[in-house]
Amino acid sequence: MGVLTAIFAREARLAWAGGGGAAGPAAFFLAAITLAPLAIGPAADLLAAAGPGILAFAALLSVLQSAERLFGDDFSDGTLDLYLLTPTSLAALCLAKVMGQASATLWPLPLIGVLGGLMYGLPPVSALVLGAALLAAIPALALIAGFAGALAAGIKRGGLLIALIATPMMVPVLIFAAGAGRSAFAGDERAVANLLLTLAISLGTVALAPFGIAAAVRGRLG
Fold it and tell me: 3-class SS at 134?
């Protein structure tokens, strides 16, 4: 447990020290949701209807922003080779690594999601449901981005490859997350069901994705 805690803390510290912590994803998220109305127009009903989907897609792009550095830097300096030498499960190490970075960089997204929902005209309750759905989706989004990052570790300009791998895998959880906010806005009782499905996908991803990430790391290291 000490090794996992140390890796979690290291990733959180590196995210703040070298990558600006939460500033990058938060700024990207804010820019995306602020500029989107320029494309769809100022109609209040249209903004409220489209808001949950726009916020979910902006969250996807924000999560992908730092995925290339997650395993790429450790691949270059040999840190991943040291992970293979520890007696701790590589899957557990990868889980601690991904969630350490996610805890340092992605925590503002649900808060901004609530404010963004209000900005798009959602009622307060609907905006809170959307923020909760984004919070529930973060583990799945982070681990999927981590899996894609592990597959692309050591590849020059791997950001495009990461996006191509991760984006289709992120779509299901984002559909349910956006659906929770949209259903709450419409007064549909399916809002709670969509929120629970978002959480279920994240829990399933936490259980399975670390093994895929570990396999990808072993494959990259040969």
Answer: helix
pLDDT per residue as tens digits for the range 9-34: 888 888 877 656 778 888 889 998 98
Q: With contact defined as beta carbons under 8 Å apart, do 137 and 202 qualify?
A: yes
- pLDDT in the model for residue 74: 80
Q: How many CB atoms lie within 10 A of CB 183?
A: 22
Helix (H, G, I), strand (E, B) or coil at 183: helix
Q: Tell me: the pLDDT tens digits for 39-91?
A: 887 788 888 889 999 999 999 999 998 888 888 878 877 788 888 888 889 99
Separation of alpha carbons 170 and 164, rounded Å: 11
State how far the Cα of 145 lies from the Cα of 222, in Å rounded to an integer. Answer: 21
- Report how far residue 84's alpha carbon sits from residue 94's, in angstroms, rounded to the nearest whole number: 11
Angle at 208 between CA 207 and CA 214, to 5 degrees: 115
Closest CA to 70 of 87, 107, 95: 95
* Maximum Cα–Cα distance across the chain: 58
Torsion sign over Cα 163, 167, 169, 173: positive
Q: Which tokens belong to 81? A: 């080779």
Let me know: does 137 contact 195? Beta carbons within 8 Å: no
Structure tokens at 56: 């979910």
What is the dihedral sign for C-alpha 61, 138, 169, 37? negative
